[in-house]
Write a structure and sequence with these properties.
26% of the residues lie in helices and 33% in strands. By secondary structure, the protein is α+β, with helices and mostly antiparallel strands.
């Protein structure tokens, strides 16, 4: 079960990233491609990651129903606009595919998801319920920070920090 939900303030975190769009089924391939492009660029520049890799999902609509057959079809048909990135110490230039990017500063709802990526939806439902119960308005993007590597730990041991900014 995920840890408690809390409100945290985060400073801006600079990164190198790839922006792309993918369906729910195309996300793993998009991530693998992006992380490969970024890693090669970082190696060429002689720099190392400063924090766990992340995906920033843009243009999220939080009041969309995801239950039942209509929700299932909506989820399958949806294309996610994403910024897939790796934080770096200081902002550096990208190349033709890798861009200088950042995770914005601000107040976020934060929780820790433990387990397979395919069960993240339950964690998002929990965070949305918490926000409604507390009268908090969520901004239109979300960030997942991948705290360990699915190639190094079992699916059950995966840890994903979920960050949803609060609308001010």
């Amino acid at each position: 079960m995920p840890d408690n939900i809390e409100v945290v303030h985060r400073d801006q975190q600079v990164s190198l990233a790839v922006e792309c769009r993918a369906s729910i089924f195309g996300i793993p391939k998009a991530m693998a491609n992006a992380f490969n492009l970024i890693t090669v660029h970082m190696e060429q520049q002689g720099i190392r990651p400063e924090a766990p890799s992340y995906t920033l999902y843009k243009y999220v609509v939080w009041d969309t129903d995801t239950k039942g057959i209509t929700g299932f079809v909506r989820m399958i048909m949806h294309k996610w606009d994403m910024q897939i990135g790796i934080p770096v110490r200081e902002q550096i230039a990208g190349n033709d595919r890798v861009i200088a990017a950042h995770i914005p500063a601000g107040r976020y709802l934060r929780t820790l998801h433990r387990g397979p990526y395919k069960t993240l939806g339950r964690t998002y439902e929990r965070v949305q319920k918490y926000a409604r119960d507390q009268g908090l308005l969520l901004a239109n993007y979300m960030v997942e920070r991948y705290l360990n590597d699915p190639h190094e730990v079992s699916q059950a041991q995966l840890e994903t920090e979920v960050l949803i900014p609060l609308a001010e």
